[in-house]
Amino acid sequence: MQDSGGSTGETGLSVEDVAAEPQSVALAAGLLIALALVWIFVWRASRPHWRSGGATSGRAVDSSWNLTDYFVGILIFFMGQFLGGAIVGTWADEWRLLSGMVFGGGLSAGYIVLVVTRTYRVELSEIGWRRAHASVVDALVSLGVTAGVLILVGALFTVVQALGMGGILWEQSAFEDVQEAEGKPLLLISITAVFLAPVFEELLFRGFALEILGRRLGTTPALVLSSAIFALVHGEAFIPLFLLGLAFGWLYVWRGSLWAPIGAHFLNNAFSVFLLTQG
Fold first, then answer.
1. Is the pLDDT of residue 112 over 60?
2. Is residue 5 assigned to a domain?
3. Which end of the chain lies in a sparser environment, N or C, as judged by fewer CB atoms within 10 Å?
């Protein structure tokens, strides 16, 4: 192939091609960061417990993580979504949703795993990353709870539409972004929404939230408050997201592990992406 100012040879990819698509570079970097954080999260969870009464550190263990730490995590999630979407969206609007999910979820997960656990010397098991001894019954219950909430949301939405209501309490513009996406953006949005978002969001909104809020408010108030925050931070579709938050939170309290709500969140997002991409 003829080399013409920056060509890389047979691939036909040139420096000019890369420069013409900065959003691809930014999204690739964001996805790599997100995947690296997931790897660190899993690696640290697989390590032997290192909180042993200060035996390895030579000092007393401090586990006084508090509401401030939680709301800092919420702020990082919100700002990551906003800034990631705004920055990348200036180059190409079709990448806005994906970049918001990657930066918001990735940065908040990184804050919890790399900052909070190190600062207070707590194990990841203390924020829900525990091995779940799941059975077929557990899986069926998780599936049933998710399906039940989706059916309830669908029924309520039908009533709301019939009454001519709706608006921001029900509708979510992200649905339109998924429906309008195609090609590479759609593929990456689907992968992120189905596989990465459940891990990032359940770590923050269930594991971290319910452990902190539950110790101070009790289980039921913690479920309600964490679900409301989960819905509010997304900015739209408050009622469906609030109900889903309650369901995911109940699964976490029931099983004592993040795996149950992560699985339910995965099913919800996979079902939603499937429906939205069917035209």
1. yes
2. no
3. C
